[in-house]
Structures are given as structure tokens and as C-alpha cells.
């Protein structure tokens, strides 16, 4: 009860079963323990959680970030890098059990983590959602990660519809360090990472301070080179030319005359370049045996460099030919600052545990656009622009109380949370359209070319805003254990938001062991997710492919409370509501063999999404081709099953750990909610491409088989991960394409050079498996050779890592 996970308990009924790793087993060794009640042991809690020992996992795994590590060990967890998708290219959206990124709550040491300020709106996974950037947390600072795979809004409040990710920071005494290098089989995407962790005792009794510093660099990758483009012609691929061979030869001649190469015309599509520095701390100071102070937090700065659609020489509305005679591909640079801290005190009197804490977090995302132009300025146009920023901050105050009484454990408490969202405008030239005299254009003035910085139009003063809200909550939960055979958890939570009102939720979970080591478990509960401030107030103009096939045009996203939204009849956003149910069993049929099977069903009403592009004459005054709006537009139903089997086998003087885990998830839209004053077609309101993102863009089936063998000073790991079929709908200008299932193989070999130094070498995707090539109809003039679906487009990746313990 004295561990940091106590704060998880005090926040509410944690209702978890963990798949924890025993001492002496390997990284794939996932078994079941309980952490809701100190009296519970293995196989004794009502719902499933994966508990991942990060230090052991990172030692031999090729992946280097939190989201990538979890993506390969938890089948119901998905994270895929995106390409040419503005800010989403710099912050990977993550999902759990087929739900959205904003339906997963992230905690650190049991305290609510703030979300990013970024809204995903580029038709990627999680479109219209606001998630948490797991990459801001350095891997070297983490002891373990608990992934609760069950709805938990009755315990934690908003966002916990799909589950909870709880990151537990290290509190070790001593020092460790790691240094790694990796590169893809195509000699790009170089990865450097170095980290050091140092822990020291603090005070006279059980106090500690643990510090972590991590530096990392990931190079860009290029996964398509458009050698099929008629560079100086009509912007159509050679296959559409009357004489493709002659057209290509003529382009080669002109390129040579100008002292250029075909690389000057290639589209860069692949992973963005990311550089990052992170500093984290975790501490506790005992003033007495019963009174302790604690604090943790950290700072992360991330700089990214991504790439937009290439502007071709023939696009006179977008390209200043005197500056870029051969067209250009814009570069989107990001600077993301993430800061967090928590301070609190725990007091134990007569076995009553009190925890008072304050947790603060902020995320700021700055945009810089380079190698671009404002076409309306002609030759006077800058080629680099500051395009503005958005930020989000959150402050949460918690008071948590708990006490164990015989077979009962009682917990209750309260929470007050303040949130603020801000958009800052960029350089004037990044968002303004000018007339031929260089003045901001007004209706009727003569203009040449589109305004704003191409690829990412800057935020204007009309976009700029600062909005805030607050919420207050009270909760209580009771758990009951009878002779380690029957476990019952009951929880309830009431919450009030200043911007939309009240919500009341509850949960009941039961586990019954009918035969020793054989148990059934089930849970049912209601939940909610409050509309984020980002969804309520994000607005901008952006460049995209025209729905009418006219090239790249300007479209708009409008605030939910804007004049445009009111004119079209959109209602004020309200909370999503959900009902969760799960049932399964746990068994231990033989020594060191553990099996869990859990089925689940999640219904979400009034789910918040971003609409398709709505073309309406009332939007013409905003100088956009079409507009998109956030709305409680759909109801969804998700059902699935998780299976985990682990076995430890003493073999040949060593230990072989076998782990088989699989997930099947299916989500479907059950209803649409159209505004009363707007009667578009369904395709225009929430079209096939948006339905595709919800229902079929992520694998319905995912599984992994891991073999980890440790003998003497050696450790051998082989892991196969199966990514099921996905479907991509290129509507409105493409076709439906199915991407066949793929299997990715990771391998590594580790050797203990000394008791303190370990060397590991290996590979991710050693057989160089890619998603299916994207069909031409879903590309942009042949670009996007591979779509970033399933496991992404990195290909094989080889790494070496040194680990030090002092």
C-alpha cells in the first residue's frame, strides 16, 4: 500500500488484473496479479490489465519510444506513424480496443496526464480526436506500464471509455544508462538515443529522488520517389502521356541542362525527422513514518520536420515560378514543448490513508513552414513563415481517502480540474491573401495566386483565442474479498463541467474462483467523455486536395460556436456517453502456464467526430471551398475479445518464456445525427472515408507470438506480430482498397559483457515486410507508394544497444 501505485488506488476503484512479470522471467513473461487491494494475489481481480516491465522490454526490443514498445506487445493497442499529415506527422495517435485516441486516459504514477494541444484532422487514424503524446515521456524514466483494458470513467472520469494507461516512474537507487543506434535497410531513418537514470536516497527513511535525461534523434525516411511524373508537362503521370518513353526522355534532357537531378522533383513521403530532449524526475520525502511528501514531473522539447504535398510547376495559383521554377515540396517544422509536475502529501493515521495532490501539465505546439511561398505576393514572397501555435494546459487537484476494514476496502475523494486552450496567430504573410499591389486583398481587388503559406496556412487573428473551463467531481468505491474466492468492486462518480453540465456514472465488477486457479470475471459500467476544449474551439484554414478534382485548394474547420456553425444548424457539443460490459476467465492449468480470455462490448452514444467537407453556399464568404465541423454526429458499437497465454519452460540450463497474445475488435456505426437545419447527403456529412476511419482503417485482428530464451550470459528473442487486414477508402477522389494481412518478425541477441554492461543487437521487421502498395487512384499523382497503415512504412530496421548498470 506504500508504493506509488497507491495513488491509483486512491483515485477510485482501479478494478484491475495485471499481467505482471515475475522475478527471473523474461520480457515476454506476462502473468496475472492484482493491484487493487493489498490482500489480493494472482488471479484475484475482476478485469484485465497488462503490466509491462519497460526496463526488461527495452533492453532487447528494437523499438525506442513508449508507443512503439506497446504497439508490439499489447495486441489491443495500436500506434502507426503518419505521413504528410501536418501536426499528426509529429505526434503519433494511439488507440486501445479499436476506440479513439481521446477515449484512452493516460496517468503517470496514478495522476491524470494532460493531453496534447493538437487536433488530428488530416483523415488519419483518430481523425477529429485529441490524444496524449506518449513520446514526451522518456523510456529510461519508466519502471513499468499498466494498461487497463476496460472502461473506467466511473473511477477516473472523462476519457477512460476504452481503458487507462498508467505509467509508473522509476524510484531506483543507483545509476543506469543506455545508448543505441539504428538504421533502416534503406540507409535512412537513422536513430540515435542516449539516456541516463540516477537515483539517490533522500532523508533518513525510504526517501528517494530519481532523475532521468534522454536525448534522441530519428532521421526522416523516404518511401516513394515519383519517377513517373511528367515534370514539365501537364502534371499527369507518364502512363497518361501519348508517348511515355519520349516524355520521360525529354524531361531527363531538360533536367540535365538545368544542372538538376530527378531528386529535385521527388516527393518525400515517409517518417518525419524528430529530435527530442527529455528531463524527468520522481521523488518522495518522508517527514515521519506516517507523513510523506512526493513530487514528480518533467520537461520535453521535440523538434520535427515533416513534408507536405509537392507543389508542381504547373500550379500557377500555388507556385511562384520565379522562385521555384520546378515547383517545391513544403517543409513543416514543429517545436513542441511539454511540461508537467505533481506535488502531494500522503498521511496515514489509524490505517486511514489521505492523499492530497496538485498535478499540472501543459503542451505547446509551434508551427514553422519552410521551402514554400505565399503565391499572392509573387516574387516578394518569403520562403519561410512562422505559422502560429496552439497550447493546452491542465491543473488537477485531488483529495483521496481510503481504508481497509476486514474484507472491505473503502475509497472516496474529490477532484477539481481547470483547463485552458489557446491559439496564437502567425506571421501576417502566413495567412493573408494579397492583391497585386501587395496590400491585404478585399472583395473586388485584383489578386494573383492563393494566399498564405503553402502546405500549412498560418493561424490568423480571427483564429486566435483563449478559452477555459473547470470541472469538479466526487467519487466513492467499495471492494469486497471473501476468502480469496469472491471479489466484488463497486464504484460511482459524479462530475460537473462548467461548459455542459453534470454526469453520473457507475461500475460493478465481480470475480469468482469456482475451482482453485480457475476463475470467471465480469464487469458492467457506464462512462462518458467530455468534449475537449480543442474540439470545441479549434479553427483554421488548410490546404487539401479539392473534392472536385481541381488540385490543391483551401478548406476550413469552423468552431462549434461560430456563425458558420450556427447558420448550418450545428448544436453545441455535449459529452459522449457509453456503456461497457466485459466477461472472461482466468486459469492456471499447470505450473507456470497462465491463460486469460476476455470479451468486451462498448456502446458509445453521441460520439464526437469531425465531419466530412460540407459544401454550402453560406460558406463562400469565408473564402473556402468547403467546411468541416466537430459534432456529436454518430453512435458506435465495439465488440471484441482478448486472449493471452504465457508459459515458462526450464530448458537446457536456461529459461524459455513463450507468450501468445491476440485481439479481435470490430467497431461499427449504428446511427447518424444530422443537424436539423442542414440536410446534406450522408457522403457530404460523414462520408465513406470517415466511416472507413472509424470501422476499418485499423486492423480488426492483431496477434503476437514471442519466444525469449535466456541462458548463461546470452538472451535470445524472436517475436512475430500479425497485423490483420485493413481497408482504406479513397473517397471522394479514390477507390476502396484492401490491404492484406502482414506478419512482422523482430529478433535480437543480448550478451552480458560484464555484470554491469550488456550489448544487444537485432532487427525490427527483419524480413522487410511492407503494407501493400497503394493503388494509383488513391494517390496524389502517383505519390504514396505505400500507405502508412498497419505497421507503417519503415521496412527492416537494424539496431545495436549498450546498457549499463552502476
From TrEMBL:
<feature type="domain" description="TonB-dependent receptor-like beta-barrel">
    <location>
        <begin position="333"/>
        <end position="766"/>
    </location>
</feature>
<keyword id="KW-1134">Transmembrane beta strand</keyword>
<dbReference type="Pfam" id="PF00593">
    <property type="entry name" value="TonB_dep_Rec_b-barrel"/>
</dbReference>
<keyword id="KW-0798">TonB box</keyword>
<dbReference type="InterPro" id="IPR039426">
    <property type="entry name" value="TonB-dep_rcpt-like"/>
</dbReference>
<dbReference type="Pfam" id="PF07715">
    <property type="entry name" value="Plug"/>
</dbReference>
<keyword id="KW-0732">Signal</keyword>
<keyword id="KW-0812">Transmembrane</keyword>
<dbReference type="GO" id="GO:0009279">
    <property type="term" value="C:cell outer membrane"/>
</dbReference>
<dbReference type="InterPro" id="IPR036942">
    <property type="entry name" value="Beta-barrel_TonB_sf"/>
</dbReference>
<dbReference type="InterPro" id="IPR012910">
    <property type="entry name" value="Plug_dom"/>
</dbReference>
<comment type="similarity">
    <text>Belongs to the TonB-dependent receptor family.</text>
</comment>
<feature type="signal peptide">
    <location>
        <begin position="1"/>
        <end position="18"/>
    </location>
</feature>
<protein>
    <submittedName>
        <fullName>Iron complex outermembrane recepter protein</fullName>
    </submittedName>
</protein>
<dbReference type="InterPro" id="IPR000531">
    <property type="entry name" value="Beta-barrel_TonB"/>
</dbReference>
<dbReference type="InterPro" id="IPR037066">
    <property type="entry name" value="Plug_dom_sf"/>
</dbReference>
<keyword id="KW-0813">Transport</keyword>
<keyword id="KW-0998">Cell outer membrane</keyword>
<keyword id="KW-0472">Membrane</keyword>
<feature type="domain" description="TonB-dependent receptor plug">
    <location>
        <begin position="42"/>
        <end position="164"/>
    </location>
</feature>
